[in-house]
Write a structure and sequence with these properties.
This protein is of the alpha+beta class. Helices cover 36% and strands 12% of the residues. Strands 2-1-3-4 form a 4-stranded mixed sheet, with helices on both faces. Strand 1, helix 1 and strand 2 form a beta-alpha-beta unit. The longest helix has 11 residues. The protein is globular, with a radius of gyration of 14 Å. The two termini are 27 Å apart. 19% of the residues are buried.
Length: 118
């Protein structure tokens, strides 16, 4: 199983996805098809943290007046299942690995995974 969870309207997601041969990957546009409880559980198994999957840049944080510092793991889980923008993206999920987000370290790890050297 190889899935990539992304947001079609996110330029950063599209830019990252364009770097790799994803012909045998399943694409999940999270706005149209939100992450399921089972998928989130699979992601959690690999990260051991809902907070690691949580986007602290989500516009919903301000709209809902959330204090991110006071949130528990259970709060992060509920929010991730509640609204697609809370998922840090893109998320590349393989049988044994997960790559979460668009920071330089994660993109470098993805490039290494795909055998891309600069």
């Amino acid at each position: 199983m190889k899935k990539v969870f992304y947001l079609n309207t996110c330029d950063t997601c599209r830019k990252i996805l364009a770097q790799f041969d994803l012909s045998d990957w399943e694409f999940r546009e999270i706005k149209k098809e939100p992450v399921t409880k089972e998928e989130l559980a699979e992601m959690y198994k690999k990260t051991k943290s809902y907070e690691a999957l949580f986007s602290k840049k989500s516009t919903q944080i301000k709209l809902r007046e959330l204090d991110v510092k006071s949130l528990t793991e259970n709060d992060f889980k509920k929010l991730l299942l509640d609204h697609y923008t809370f998922l840090k993206r893109p998320v590349f999920l393989t049988g044994d690995k997960i790559f979460v987000g668009n920071d330089k370290k994660n993109v470098a790890a993805l490039q290494d995974f795909f055998g891309i050297t600069e």
